[in-house]
Specification:
The protein has helices at about 1-15, 20-30, 45-60, 75-90, 90-105. By secondary structure, it is mainly α. The chain is globular, with a radius of gyration of 20 Å.
């Protein structure tokens, strides 16, 4: 069974099969469906991504990223802006912004 899964994976990767199709192939070969979960977590909706970006900008973190230079992430100003972003992102502001983004698309 292990050889069958590895063979399916190699064939799918060389043929350019999408992750969903690959998961279906491996699952049909007897592997558990969770065998190919994304290491990046659950996918986000467009509204969630736009909400995250809006909060990033609202917190002012975007002002530190200009051109090719990496910001000084150890500066007091950057830490304060990033802390504000984390506060916004982990509180009710995020869900409110997601709802606003969803409403804007309608």
């Amino acid at each position: 069974m292990q050889i069958l899964r590895k063979t399916a994976l190699v064939l799918a990767l060389t043929a350019g099969v999408s992750g969903t199709a690959l998961a279906q192939q491996v699952a049909s070969a007897g592997a558990p469906a969770t065998a190919l979960t994304s290491p990046y977590g659950q996918s986000l909706t467009r509204a969630e991504v736009l909400a995250d970006l809006a909060l990033w900008k609202r917190a002012g973190v975007d002002k530190f990223w200009r051109g090719e230079a990496t910001p000084d992430i150890y500066s007091r100003e950057y830490k304060a802006a990033f802390s504000e972003y984390v506060r916004l992102r982990s509180g009710p502001d995020y869900q409110a912004e997601v709802q606003r983004q969803n409403d804007a698309r309608r």
